[in-house]
Amino acid sequence: MGGGTAGWMLAASLVRTFGPHHATVRLIESGDIAIVGVGESTLPQVRDFNEFLGVDEVEFMRETNATFKLAIEFRDWARLGDRYFHPFGSHGHAIAGVPFFQCFLRAKAHGHDFNIDDFCYPSVASREQKFELPSEDLSSIRSTYSYAYHFDAYLYAAYLRRWSEKRGLRRTEGTVVDVTLRPDDGFIQSLTLASGEVVEGDIFIDCSGFRGVLINQALKMGWEDWSSWLPCDRAWAISSDLDDDGTATTRCTAREAGWQWRIPLQKRIGTGYVFSSRFTTEERAREVLLQNLDGAAQGDPRLIKFQSGRRKNSWYKNCIALGLASGFLEPLESTSIYMSQIAVNFLMRLFPGHPVDPALAEEYNRLVDIEYTRVRDFLVLHYHASAERKGDLWHHVQTMQLPDSLAEKMDIFKRRGHIHRYKDGLFSPASWIAVYTGQRIEPGGYDPQADNIDLDSMLGTMNDLRDRIASNVATMPGHYDFVRRHCRLSTKSAKSGKSHA
What we know:
The protein is an alpha+beta fold. It has a domain at 234-305. It has 15 helices and 20 strands. Strand 3 (71-75) and strand 4 form a beta hairpin. The longest helix is centred in the C-terminal third of the chain and has 27 residues, at 358-384.
């Protein structure tokens, strides 16, 4: 039950996987409940989902007001005036078999003040507001990156709804007013709608958002609160007129009690201020947001309340919680849609039969726990590594006790710049390197293997790479120019229109 991005991603996956002949899929969605519109910025994995469905990229982009995304840009996080990129690509390449970052650290130790962003193709392209699709020639430097999208989450959910209904999904508009549990085992037996209709089923998937109508209100599954590490619990969201900054990045700017996002779409800019109600008031946060818009406001800001954390178990009895009903780790790093997508992937892999197998539920919960925990650690790093930011919020996150798992990662990195490689989990070593270096966490040493390379030869290779990236980026089209050409948009259509978020 429930629509939104999570509900319709799941519905489309079920239709695509099982078709109309192997399972009956029914989605119950209330037209009275607003869709939370903070998930407009995505990660490259969303392209895998669209390709799984067979979605045409141009059609999808035209119908969802989408633009491209090469990186996330961070401003003012470690100190005022700082700027760095978390790119969808790697930094450099191994030199004489030694990882590039270790060569970078050796160069720094010898007094060469390189900027790590200069060695990453999507970071330079983002800085120059350029974009083109990656080359299919794997020997080309233009093949060394991936990309994602910025889109209107409301329009994306509507797009997936049309896609699913064309392929046989049955949608019912209605509000669940009662949940009946089986007396013998506490499993969900049926849902009663406001119309009086009783809906029975074998499996119930809760996509009802923060309320968790089934997993929380009916089954009383507990919540693991992570607000001590991620204290932001509010966001003011608004749209503004499109300006001339056509960058293919989501911008995250640190503010006095949180941070502000900026997401450029075809016809507007999505902007929001994520803040902690423990360290500022809603009125002050609203004022800060409106003072920092790039274009004229479209309407009034909308307040969204949330709590960072997750369900202790997302799969309980015959109910599986997805999306915000399962957990939420605030909008930083654009992980919300990804978390829905990876949960759908796990569910398709472990789809329950009848009766429900507890071993499948246990494995599903284990996989979901790994994803949430590792994403949590990555987000907490951004806040904690803010050494020169002033204010009550920043003092709290700078001095708080870290999760043991993150403290161990940071300790290992500070010694020699080593990043632990996990088989599972979202963020790659390149992502961790981007945030560590961007927020001024420097290792005390480097891998001694880097000393086996002739220093002049190593520096020459690094300089050549930096120059080759810069010269290639210089020939790329501007991001918005590419979007208009790729999506066959007129200049007028690309700069008009209002928000659904």
